Amino acid sequence: MASTLSQWFRSLRVKLLQRYEHQPFVSCLAGLYGCQWKHYKRSQPEGCCCNKLEGASFAVLVAAFCLTLLFLYFWGQAKNDYNDFDWFNFGNLGFWFPWSVVLLAVAVVFFTYVTVLVLLAVCLLSEGQKLYLHWSHKIGILVSLTVSIIAMAVLSNLWSKEWRTLLLSFQVTAPFLHVGGVLLMTSLAWPVALHFFRMKSTVRRGLIMAVYLTVLLSLYLIPLGLYSPCIKEKGTLGPAPALIGHRGAPMLAPENTLMSFEKAVEAGCDGLETDVTISFDGVPFLMHDYTLQRTTNIHEVFPNRTNTPAARFTWNELESLNAGDWFLSHNPFGTAGSLNADDRQRAGNQSVCSLQAFLQLAAQTGKLVIFDLYRPPRDHPFRDTWIQRTLEVIQNESSIHSSQVLWLPSNLRALVQELDPELQQTSGSRLPLEELQSNHIVKLNLDYTSMSAELIREYTAVNITTNLYVISQPWLYSLAWCAGVHSVTTNAPQLLSTISSPLFIMSPDEYKLMWILTDLMSFVLILLIFFFHRWRERELAFCTGSRIKLEGGTYSKFKKELSDIWSVSSGNSAAERMPSLAAVTEH
Description:
The protein is an alpha/beta fold. The chain starts with a helix and ends with a helix. The chain is built from 25 helices and eleven strands. It has an eight-stranded parallel β-barrel, surrounded by four helices. A two-stranded antiparallel sheet has the order 10-11. The chain is elongated and about 100 Å long. Among the domains are: 23-225, no CATH class; 242-291 and 353-497, Alpha-Beta Barrel (TIM Barrel). It has helices at 2-17, 23-34, 52-77, 82-93, 99-126, 135-158, 161-187, 189-198, 202-221, 258-266, 298-301, 315-319, 325-330, 341-348, 355-365, 386-396, 413-419, 433-438, 453-461, 474-483, 493-496, 508-539, 560-567, 572-577, 579-585, and strands at residues 242-246, 271-278, 284-286, 368-373, 405-407, 424-427, 443-447, 465-469, 487-490, 547-550, 553-556. A hairpin with a 2-residue loop joins strand 10 and strand 11 (553-556). Mean pLDDT is 87; it is low at 544-587.
């Protein structure tokens, strides 16, 4: 029994000291990475993994991987604002095209390409091979790097608020990104340890270990500075934020039309949001844009007035326009195809909606309303009385109760409050608490990028609720829920109304357990990998350059003792000293 166990341990030791090159696999890797399909030669594992040029190429490859990953993550998290991005381009270019999706596809392609090259390089390094990157890949990496830098620079200039969105996303994804980062660094321990112990240059070894350990320790300690409102004790989560339909339900019907608001009501919205402009003859109507180009067929009905402000049209002229065909032709959210035949026909026949019809719908369904009110241009008959005209519609031309109206316009707020004190005064700016209270503000309507659990608590303490706009992605809605937001304005009420609890929520104890276990398991695995390679390279330090082929794999550099055993082909002492090796060679 003892003899058998001893032979098993000696056989295991021999196998651990053998170097497998897996020639077909390595040839495939080298062919994909360096296009060396015909002239590939096995490289010697000693020394550095590459020359200076290839080392610089690998460094650029790693930089490209990091930047393309950042670009993809940045634009992927910006999905909440894709519609705004596409309409911004429509306003500048004059035609509709889903540029946001194209940009996302470009980011995915570049990241995938660079990631494949990184994986090939890591596999080659894990096999102890030298790196040689083909010139075509070097050009491809530079193109990926350049495009990512330019795209992020342009987006940062035009849409700087998306960086705040990125920071918000970390409050949700950081615990999971931490786990992913630790797993990645743990998997890199094998090639790092392999080449660390094979390198002869002390400087290079020190540099590799310094970089690796710095990144690893940073990942281990990142949770110490991590904050997420979704990490909270059980039982402390408040109610889900109420939903306010942004221009109705614009994914299900043309925005700011009666059909859109009816769809929002069906989706379970507690409130409706819109934009109000006053026609030239004094009829308040719903229109977000300054002109009618984007959401009507004005180019067909009034081709010479396409750039005319919407407020300079009479109500009769506005009623003659179609406000639904554009939704079916442009398909701004990619959801028009999901409508049934009846809804498609109804959407295509929508007209410009009046404020009176909008308020009547809200009154009948008991919904809150909030709207931006645009002051008419100069020389408009109602330029100086637009506030009073709007109040007339609320008080005299509809059956809505004033308490259902969240009054957002800041102009003449004192006069409005005097004329109708039951309106819920709402501020679109983050003002000092004293000023908010002096203006009798009961609700804040803020951009979602200003989300702060601490500020929300401060406002709540003085009976001021918070509404954030525009939130359409589940992760953002979950974050708002955890932060204590009271309501959100959304393009996707049909989606958010189905969320029964925040995504990614966990208790502090659950997160600490995940964090500690991840770091501990990673640390133990990395230690084992480094100790294994240290032991293996020290054992192989006495090896000769002999090479034997076993079981389809090529093994090199056996310990001198094993080489001597192999060379004695007829002696019994060889079989006695290494029976396991003799048994293997008989295959």
